[in-house]
């Protein structure tokens, strides 16, 4: 039971990380200093996708699942709704490159908008 809980918490942390990498730049409009955290994490997420690396959270989650006696993902809420977001069907290297470039594009757009917003707000 504890290992399944740890696996589910790891998966939720993974989802939160992915959401922060993709959409965290939007938080800059409210908290501009968050860029110091978001930029390195976004760069890590983009590099992982573009290079085809495995995020360290994936093997950690699988390790907890194996310790809990699980094989694969049984059809629980977390697995059914969240796993498919992190591990879509048909995922290939070209899809990973497109995803990485999309995340880069989204973040460049958001940072550009945040920069222009901040300049206007300060009358520069």
Q: Can you tell me the overall shape?
A: elongated
Question: What is the helix tally?
Answer: 5
How much of the sequence lies in strands comes to under 5%
Average residue-wise pLDDT: 85
The stretches of 5 or more residues where confidence is low (pLDDT under 50) are 74-78
Radius of gyration: 17 Å
Q: How many E-type strands? A: 0
Compressed to H and E, one letter per element, the order equals: HHHHH
Main sheet attributes: strand count, strand direction, barrel closure = none
How much helix, percentage-wise, in residues? over 70%
Structural class: mainly alpha
User: End-to-end distance, in Å?
Assistant: 57 Å
Summarize the structure.
With 124 residues, this protein is mainly α.
Give a description of the structure.
By secondary structure, this protein is mostly helical. 72% of the residues lie in helices and 0% in strands. It contains 5 helices and no strands. The chain has helices at residues 2-23, 35-51, 57-67, 77-86, 93-121. Helix 1 runs antiparallel to helix 3 (57-67) and helix 1 packs parallel to helix 4 (77-86). The longest helix is centred in the C-terminal third of the chain and has 29 residues, at 93-121. The model is unreliable at 74-78 (pLDDT under 50).
